[in-house]
């Protein structure tokens, strides 16, 4: 008994021809459009509290390290505890409906369910403190958060993107006189950075697998 029609025997050659003709195009499209540059850049989840970095870090000039206290001494920058928010909001906007989750958290100890935006894969290791010590500024990875009402992911944080900086870190290394939290500072041409005596020139970030995959 013939289970499949006779014309089905032609399917494998047809698929082979299609793969030969369109395979590179399809693979190229997948490689380009499924990369973090297109899937992750612009990611902007809704947060439980409409916290504005533009207001706090921009208009009010609050230093990043006031909230992200771990950035200089640990691998993670850390999410600020509710107590940090209440340092101000126990006196300012005490009745704001938008801040109800903060007040609830302070009252009963329940966590505020902030949604993490910037994250490298679990198989990759990233140390904030090492980058801060080398004078890589916050804006190099996170963009101008002082201008963002709602924070979004500015860079792809992909392996290729990280390696581009590791291969030529000098443009992103700030002079000793410039704070890493100065959002207005911009990366400089490599030749300018190389001739600046106030810039560290002994930085040699790893380019091998074990530098980030441990």
Compressed to H and E, one letter per element, the order equals HHHHHHHHHH
Q: What's the pLDDT, averaged over the residues?
A: 90
**Which regions have little confidence, pLDDT < 50, spanning 5+ residues?**
none
Termini, distance in Å? 58 Å
Largest sheet: none
Beta-strand fraction estimate: under 5%
Task: Output the structural class.
Answer: mainly alpha
Oligomer: single chain
Q: Characterize the overall form.
A: flat
Radius of gyration: 24 Å
Number of strands: 0
> What is the helix fraction of residues, given as a range?
25-40%
State the helix count: 10
Describe the fold and architecture:
The protein has 214 residues and is mainly α. The protein has a domain at 70-79 and 121-211. The chain has helices at residues 11-33, 36-39, 53-59, 64-67, 82-89, 100-108, 128-133, 138-142, 159-167, 190-194. The model has no long low-confidence stretch (mean pLDDT 90).
What's this, in brief?
Helix content is 37%, strand content 0%. It is mainly α.
Please give the structural blueprint.
Elements: H1 11-33, H2 36-39, H3 53-59, H4 64-67, H5 82-89, H6 100-108, H7 128-133, H8 138-142, H9 159-167, H10 190-194
State the main characteristics.
214 residues, mainly alpha
